[in-house]
Amino acid sequence: MHGLGSFGRRRARRAENLLRATIRKDSSSFASRFSAPVFPGETLRTEMWRDGAVVSFRSRVVERDVVAVTNGRAEVRS
Q1: pLDDT of 10-21, one tens digit each?
Q2: Residue 77 near residue 24 (C-beta atoms within 8 A)
Q3: How many CB atoms lie within 10 A of CB 28?
Q4: N or C: which end of the chain has fewer CB within 10 A?
């Protein structure tokens, strides 16, 4: 599956919605990189961590222990 397809998957999409709810409206720092394909039936686990006003995230394919979405970054409201 291509990157946008995997980003649309349930878990990655849920994490994106959570981030978008807290992102600063005047910020354009929401970004991520698609680093590996996701195959139908695979499970994505999204990990998020916060450092001040920045939330970083990545989504990992559980079955293969491969990061499919990496370098995720969003600036959050203070």
Answers
A1: 555 666 666 666
A2: yes
A3: 8
A4: C
Residue 18's φ and ψ, nearest 5 degrees, are: -65, -45
Q: Which residues contact 24 (CB under 8 A, 6 or more apart)?
A: 53, 75, 76, 77, 78
Task: Determine the Cα–Cα distance for residues 49 and 39; give it in Å rounded to an integer.
Answer: 26
What's 28's domain CATH number?
A: 3.10.129.10
Closest CA to 76 of 15, 19, 4, 28: 19
**DSSP of 27-39:** ----EEEE-S---
Q: Which domain holds residue 28?
A: 3-75
Count how many domains the chain has.
1
Count of other CB atoms within 10 angstroms of residue 63: 12
